[in-house]
Amino acid sequence: MAELQKAGILGAGMMGAEIALVCARAGMAVVMKEVNLELAQKGKKRIADILNKQVSKGQLAQADADAALALVTPTDKYDGFADADIVVEAILEVVDIKQQAFRELDAVCKPTCIFASNTSSISITKLAAAARPDRFVGLHFFSPVSIMKLVEVIPGLLATPETVEIAKAFCVKIGKTPIKVKNVEGFAVNRMLCAMMNEAYRLVDEGVASIEDIDTACKLGLGHPVGPLRLCDNISLDLLGKVHDILAEAYGDRFKAPNAFRERVSAGHYGRKTGKGWYDY
Questions:
Q1: CATH code, domain with 250
Q2: Domain range enclosing 172
Q3: Is the pTM of this model over 0.85?
Q4: Which of 10, 148, 166, 263 is most buried (CB neighbours < 10 A)?
């Protein structure tokens, strides 16, 4: 198995930037693309801020932080993807947009390059139909990527065993623990997570307990590091709304988000990124 030396990251938002960060921390050269250079540079600043925080806490030497940051090249073009060994897509959770991006990548990436999507809920086989179905997997990271160790590895229908092994090796290389998951809507973790979140929304809807007490119950009663409603704010309600819709279509009303959730989405209260969600920020 050839050594993976360069990663292409499509998307420089919260997920894309942190995936780029863990690749760079593992010594890989990284090219990170956004729709314009300003957004790509903003993603690199996000990486710099995380590294600086780790340095200030004594978790990382300044020289190592500088070296990692220097490995990340922000761009608004595909030129730097030509010699990438693996490309991870982390853009909008919309099938057509993702498929078009992979068709564009297929035109510039070398034949041996592995394609991966960080989708949280869309069928990998459906995305792989756009390009390289035999060299295409889902790599579902968890936020914050710089901290969370798990990656779900999801083979599409036509992915070869070699592709899956390369993808798992990539995860290990960047310090993650991969688990292989069947290609079903929501994969494994999001089905469990959204079921729990939906029940938390219903508890709010029914007035069973306050938002703060529901989160406290999960932290102190179930041992969770963060409660489901605070986590929902951190992920963002608009993104989770799309996931709930996909899961509800696949599995029925048990995944349909209740009124307390839908009202906040309608009001534009998406969580931490908008300053208001279940909590005020």
A1: 1.10.1040.10
A2: 6-180
A3: yes
A4: 10
